[in-house]
Fold this protein.
Amino acid sequence: MKPAPIAGPVNSKNALIPGLEPLPVGGPSLDTRIEEAEARTERAEVRTEEAETRTERAEARTAHAETRIEQAETRSEQAKTRTEQAKARTEQAERRTEQAETRSEQAETRSEQAVRDSEVSYRRLFEAAKDGIFILDDRGRINDVNPFLAELLGFSRDEMLGKTVGELSPFKDIEDNQAMLERLQRTGFVRYDDLPLQARDGRKMEVEFVSNVYDDGGGKVIQCNIRDITERKKEEMASLRLAAIVESSDDAIIGKDLRGFVTSWNAAAEREFGYTASEMVGQSITRLIPAERQQEEMKIHEQVARGENVRHFETMRLRKDGSIFNVSVTVSAIKDSAGKIIGASKVVRDITTRKKAEETIHRLNAELEQRVTERTAELEAANKELESFSYSVSHDLRAPLRAVDGFSQAVLEDYGPQLPEEGRRCLQTIREGAHRMGTLIDDLLTLSRLGRLPLSKRAVETGDLVRAVLEDLSPQREGRQIEVSVGELPVCRGDAVLLKQVWINLLSNAFKYTRRREKALIEVGCKREPIAAEDQRGPEKKTNENVYFVRDNGTGFDMRYADKLFGVFQRLHREDEYEGTGVGLAIVQRIVHRHGGRVWAEAGLDRGATFYFTLEEKSKP
Amino acid sequence: MSETTPVEVLLVEDNLEDLELTQRALRKANFTNCIHIARDGAEALEFLFCEGAHAGRKIEDHPKVILLDLKLPKLDGLQVLKRIKSDPRTRAIPVVVLTSSKEQNDVVESYHLGVNSYIVKPVNFERFAAAVRDVGMYWLLLNHPPLEK
């Protein structure tokens, strides 16, 4: 507050102050008195002004003081508040300090526990580790050995304690203990990646040997970890071997991923397709496939992606030079260890040569087929002709014979008494001729039928068959002294009806040609004989075969004519000595040949004969 | 031979000599019954089914037995046999094939068609005569045919 101005001329104003009436004139001089009044008024006014100014100043000072008091009060309150807050914070700090102390104590406790736990678990690890562990002192002496290593090496823990590693036989060949120790001291670390060891029992293995030096607080300790990597090495070897096989394969072996990009490409693939591995790996497999086969490749791809393998699929492939060749493709899914399909391997074999060979075979087969067809047609025609021939022989040749015989008989019956003896004999001879020709025709028909009818092969009890035949032939033995001995006859495989005919013919011959013996001796049997080399057919070499025989003590024959024996109509005796058509042995031969066997005879003139025959072995397919 | 005489044997045979020998054999065996002879298959069927020259005959008056050769002119024996055995009116008549053929095909086919006997004529006349005698004895005397309506 500003003090009011204390002095100033106020002349004009005096007259205006109400109550101050002018004093009556008559004193000292009026004017003087007026002047004096005016001076006093002026002084009073000055004093008033001064008083007013002082009042104003006082008021201003008072206001100022009031303001300061308010401020002081405010500050005082603030101070009070801060003090309270400080007190509260102090309390909190104290509490936190307490808590911190508690936690710190707990942490210490836990830390101690952790150390104890850590020691236990380390021990457990040490005991249970599937790696061998040595703990050595700073001089390299064994302080501890875990059970796995003891087991691996075949030494007990006690045997090893206190020794250096080099003193144990499995390690005697590795570098000198001292040298290793020095190296360890120098580098703190020694590692052998691939150390051959032999366990105490001689078992060979390969190990990874790692030594570390560390301070356990009380001094230097060496820990050696020994890992048996024999299996891993074997797997690596196997893997290398497989890789070598793949590389040396004659077939192109190609790996591709699921998108159809080539991941591996072996040497044969380079040869077959003309692309090098670097040209193909990372490229799409489709560049090996002719345009018209792309669709097919898609299908194969889908199939493999479903986990189905494709085997020996025959198709075409495209070489780098643009040529196309025949291949057989085998595609297998490649799976990761989790069994997920991650790609496919393709084995591609060039089958051009085989295809050509197949085509040649097909062509040859077709030609052969054609020739067989033609030949069959010819044979069928010939067979037809033969059939109609034998049919007509059967009918047309027999009818006249029957007439010859029948009418000769009619003459004998009706006019016999009127004929001279000679006439009757002649007619009888005519009849005998007709009968013989009838037999001949029958035999010939039998022979021709044998060549045409299919064989119906089954196991035949030869012994039973021979006994039945002997029974059938018993009329031929009437009035004669014949001794027949039948040896052991093994079962054979053949057409029973036809084989019976063989035995009938051979035994009939034996009876017939022993007719002049007082006592006929006939022997039937079978012997095992090695097969002559040229008769061994097929890869399964049978060493022995059954040889059936019929031996007699009859007339025999001269071996010089043996080759004629089995010919049709061939006879070694005159009709008046021994009747017959000369077809019987031809029939025997035809039947035996149709069974795949052989027939032959041994004889001497007047010293009997032996007929042998063989049949296919029962075991033969 | 009159059409009214009941025929006991129908002999179908084209070969004159065989025909004579068969008749002789039948005669020797004292079968003098009425025998009708047909010289081929067509003639045999005409007689049996009362056609052509035999139109006046009654089909019911069939022979007691038919002796049938297989190798015949026109229709062969197997065709004749087939016709006889496939017609209900003639099916019951016994048919004996009397032939020179030993062919299995003929034998099998004859039985397949329903033949009652199959006899191969032997070359030897004595055996032939015996066979004819036995056939006659069996079919004419021993065999009992179904009664006619």
